[in-house]
């Protein structure tokens, strides 16, 4: 069945003006992740990485939160803000990390390691969060791991690449769930080596969801917000950016004189764009604000259980 956005022609509308009008009318705040289309980033009231967006959702006074990101991000906003309306432009905007870690398999995995502390990356479902002791994002993961007493066994899910990176950074021996991000796994070491030869002065900057052999080539590794700050503040003039290409929009805005080179995936595809993030379109943002749908609703008991490990993370951040 075609969605409302595809079955209804919105061509006659000035979407920018309409979205601004509806935001005021609904007392809505538009939160957007750096991997959204540049047009959506430009409509947003706040753009951030996963941690900053969770904090913005927690702190907002708006009646309506429109979350231009993926489902687990909006779910986190709802967990932190149960009394507000949380809208997601496209409910199908999932995440390969969250989808690859179903709660029943996660529970069975956890049961094999009794007495362990479970740290889950925020890219997971509320049901997995509810089974976890503490949540982390890519910007606070190292701090969260280091907050756990040394003698304590740690289970880390669902991203094996971030997990392996953290083992190297902290020297902690963690048991890793074997999940990965389909976008960050497409970057090719062969093509990155070629690029580095073509641009010997360029700094390579990468998201920790990338595979180990790519992270080993990076001059800097960090969350989307940290990569952005690095481009702004570092003295280099050229950067090879190994993450979802949506981040380049803010990098170009904040550092207009620097040269940014998006790391290519192995094939000639647009696989360095997250297919889930890119399900959101300006048309769907407009329709969500107009209709106050689709809304994220959650079972209150699950919400309460998932909130505890998120609160623990926010206290430490
Ligand atoms: P950040 O928290 O670094 O923004 O990462 C979110 C994400 O989904 C990366 O793929
Ligand atoms: Fe999930 Fe990867 Fe998309 Fe981030 S880029 S939302 S980790 S699929």
Strand-residue proportion: 5-15%
Question: What's the total helix number?
Answer: 16
Shape: globular
Residue share in helix: 40-55%
CATH class of the largest domain: Alpha Beta
Architecture of the largest domain in CATH? 3-Layer(aba) Sandwich
CATH fold field value of the largest domain? Rossmann fold
Major sheet details? 4 strands, parallel
Radius of gyration equals 20 Å
String of helices and strands: HHEHEHEHEHHEHEHEHEHEHEHEHEHH
Number of strands: 12
Which molecules are bound besides the chains?
1,3-dihydroxyacetonephosphate, iron/sulfur cluster
Category from helices, strands and their pairing: alpha/beta
End-to-end gap: 43 Å
Strand order of the largest sheet: 2-1-3-4
Q: State mean pLDDT (0 to 100 scale).
A: 96
pLDDT < 50 stretches: none
Tally of separate domains: 3
How would you describe this protein?
Helix 2 (15-26) runs parallel beside helix 15 (282-291), helix 4 packs parallel to helix 5 and helix 5 crosses helix 16 (300-316). The protein is an alpha/beta fold and 317 residues long. It is globular, with a radius of gyration of 20 Å. The chain has helices at 4-7, 15-26, 38-43, 50-59, 71-80, 96-99, 103-111, 126-130, 141-146, 160-170, 189-198, 212-215, 224-233, 247-254, 282-291, 300-316; strands at residues 28-33, 46-48, 64-68, 85-87, 117-121, 134-136, 154-157, 174-176, 203-206, 220-221, 238-242, 259-262. The strands form 3 sheets. Strands 2-1-3-4 form a 4-stranded parallel beta sheet, with helices on both faces. Strands 6-5-7-8 form a 4-stranded parallel beta sheet. A 4-stranded parallel beta sheet has the order 10-9-11-12, with helices on one face. The protein has 3 domains: 4-94 and 276-297, 3-Layer(aba) Sandwich (Rossmann fold); 97-180, Rossmann fold, CATH 3.40.50; 189-262, Rossmann fold (3-Layer(aba) Sandwich), CATH 3.40.50. The structure holds 1,3-dihydroxyacetonephosphate and iron/sulfur cluster. Iron/sulfur cluster (SF4) binds at residues 35, 70, 95-97, 123, 181-183, 209, 244, 274, 276-277.
């Amino acid at each position: 069945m075609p969605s409302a956005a595809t079955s209804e022609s919105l061509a006659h509308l000035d979407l920018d003006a309409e979205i601004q009008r509806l935001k005021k009318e609904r007392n809505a705040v538009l939160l957007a992740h750096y991997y959204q289309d540049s047009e959506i980033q430009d409509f947003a009231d706040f753009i951030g990485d996963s941690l900053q967006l969770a904090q913005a959702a927690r702190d907002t006074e708006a009646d309506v939160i429109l979350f231009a990101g993926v489902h687990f991000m909006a779910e986190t906003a709802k967990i932190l803000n149960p009394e507000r309306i949380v809208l997601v432009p496209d409910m199908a905007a999932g995440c390969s990390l969250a989808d690859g870690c179903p709660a029943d398999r996660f529970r069975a995995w956890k049961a094999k390691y009794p007495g362990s502390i479970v740290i889950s990356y925020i890219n997971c479902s509320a049901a997995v969060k509810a089974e976890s002791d503490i949540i982390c994002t890519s910007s606070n993961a190292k701090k969260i791991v280091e907050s756990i007493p040394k003698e304590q066994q740690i289970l880390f899910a669902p991203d094996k690449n971030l997990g392996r990176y953290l083992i190297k950074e902290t020297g902690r021996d963690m048991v890793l769930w074997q999940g990965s991000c389909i976008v960050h796994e497409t970057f090719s070491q062969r093509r990155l080596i070629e690029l580095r030869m073509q641009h010997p002065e360029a700094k390579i900057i990468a998201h920790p969801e990338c595979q180990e052999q790519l992270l080993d080539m990076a001059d800097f590794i960090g969350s989307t917000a940290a990569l952005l700050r690095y481009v702004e503040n570092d003295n280099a003039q050229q950067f090879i950016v190994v993450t979802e290409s949506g981040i380049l929009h803010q990098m170009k805005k904040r550092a207009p004189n620097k040269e940014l080179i998006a790391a290519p995936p192995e094939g000639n595809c647009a696989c360095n764009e997250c297919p889930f993030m890119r399900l959101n379109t300006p048309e769907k943002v407009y329709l969500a604000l107009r209709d106050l749908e689709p809304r994220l609703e959650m079972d209150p008991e699950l919400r309460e259980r998932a909130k505890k490990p998120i609160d623990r993370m926010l206290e430490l951040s």
